[in-house]
Amino acid sequence: MAKYPFINEAAEYVKELDLKIEDMSDPILNRAEHRIEEALLYALVSTELRKEEIEISSFPVAVMMVASTADKLMKKRYALAEAKRIYELLEEESKDKILEVTRVFNWKIRTVDDKPPYEFALFFTNYLRNAARIQAKGWKLVNRVVLNGEVYLTKGNVARLLQEEVRVHIEKKLDVKEKVVLPQNVADRVERLRQAFTKQKGKIELEGFPKEVVISAFPPCVKHMYDEVASGHHLSHIGRFTLTSFLTNIGMTAEEVVNLYRSLSDFKERLTRYQVEHIAGGRGSRTKYIPPRCDTLRTHGVCTGMDEICERIRHPLAYYRRKLRTIKVKAPVE
Fold first, then answer.
1. CA-to-CA separations, 315 to 80, 102, 258, 318, in angstroms, rounded
2. How do strand 146-147 and strand 150-153 relate by DSSP bridges?
C-alpha cells in the first residue's frame, strides 16, 4: 500500500483511519508537501517507505492539495511524476506483484513462460488504451507480437503501460468539479508550492533537461563514475547502468556516451552501442531508463559520499536539477 497508494486496499486503509485533513499530523503534511515539491520542481517523486502509515496517508493528502489549485500544468506534472515513481518500483517487482497492480485497472493479463523474452500476454484492448498515449514507433501494434488477441510483453513493457494507466488515473482524481476547501495551514503550504512553481514555469521542461550538459552539476557519485570512465577505469554493472542512464536523461547523445567508454580496455563498439541505445530508449522495448534511486545506489555501494544537496534529495536527477539552479553558466562571448 505504501508503494502503490492508489490501490483499493490503500484507500480502504485511509478510510478506516477516518482522518480529516484538518487533523493531519505534520509528518503526513510534510511528506505530502515534499511529494508535490519534487514533482513540480524536479519531475519525479522519490520513494520513502520507512514509515508506511505516513507514506500511505500522504498520497491522498497530496492529491487533495494539488486538486485545490486551478493550475492544469501543476496537475499534469504531479500526475506524471507519481506515475514515473510507479514505473521505477514496478521494474523491481515480481511478476505476481505486477499482476496484483494490474487488477486495480481490470486488465486481462497473464504470465507466459514459453515465449522468451516475453513474460506477459495482455489483451489487445488493454494494450491499445495505454500504448496509444506513447509516441515511440515501437509501441504501435504492428510492431508487436500478437497471438489470439493477446500482445506479448516484457516486464519493462508492462511497467511502462502501467505508468500511463496510473498517470491518467491520478489526473482524473485531480480533475474535481467542486472547489476544494483546505484548512488555512494546508492552504498556506499549497500557496508556497504554487509560487515556487510559478517562478520556475518558464524554465521547467516536462520532458528532459536543458540541452547543455553541465558536468559541475553532477551529483558526487555520478561525477566519480564519470571521472573513472574518462580515466580508463572500469565500473560495476550497476555503476555503468547508472552513469549511462543519467547521461542520456540529461541530454547527452548516445554517440557521446559511447565515445566516453572508448577509453576502456574491453571496449567493444557494437556491444557498447547496443547497450547505450537500449538504455536511452532507442532499441528493444523503446523504454528510456532512468538511474536508480539514491537508496538503491547506497545499497550497492555506488554512493561515494553525500554533500548538503544529497541530504535533501532522493534521486540523482533531482540532484542535477537542484544543482543547476545554483550554478550561473556564463554565456559565450559573441
1. 16, 26, 24, 5
2. antiparallel
Rounded to two decimals, what is the model's pTM? 0.63
Q: Which stretches of the chain are assigned E, i.e. beta strand? A: 109-111, 120-123, 146-147, 150-153
**For residue 108, pLDDT beyond 60:** yes
Q: Are residues 35 and 184 in the same domain?
A: yes
For residues 104 and 97, give the distance between their C-alpha atoms in angstroms, rounded to a whole number.
12
**pLDDT at position 61:** 95
My answer on whether 83 and 127 are in the same domain is: no
Q: What are the φ and ψ backbone dihedral angles of 10, each rounded to 5 degrees?
A: -65, -40
Q: Which of 330, 119, 302, 291 is nearest to 220 (CA)?
A: 302
Q: Is the pLDDT of residue 236 over 80?
A: yes
- C-alpha of 111 from chain center: 25
Cell numbers placing 331: 554565456
How many residues appear in the chain?
A: 334
**Alpha-carbon torsion (145, 146, 147, 153), positive or negative:** positive
Interacting residues of 4 by C-beta distance below 8 A, sequence separation 6+: 10, 86, 89, 101, 104
Taking only the tens place, the pLDDT of each residue in 294-309 is 989 999 999 988 898 9
Q: pLDDT at position 212, please?
A: 74
Q: Which domain holds residue 306?
A: 215-324
- In the chain, % helix, strand, coil (3-state, to 5) comes to 55, 5, 40
Three-state DSSP class for residue 4: coil
Q: Tell me: do 54 and 186 sit in the same domain.
A: yes
**pLDDT value at 54 more than 70:** yes
Look up residue 63 and give its three cell numbers. Answer: 492529491
Q: For residue range 12-23, what is the model confidence (pLDDT) as tens digits?
A: 998 888 878 888
Rounded Cα distance, 75 and 175, in Å: 8
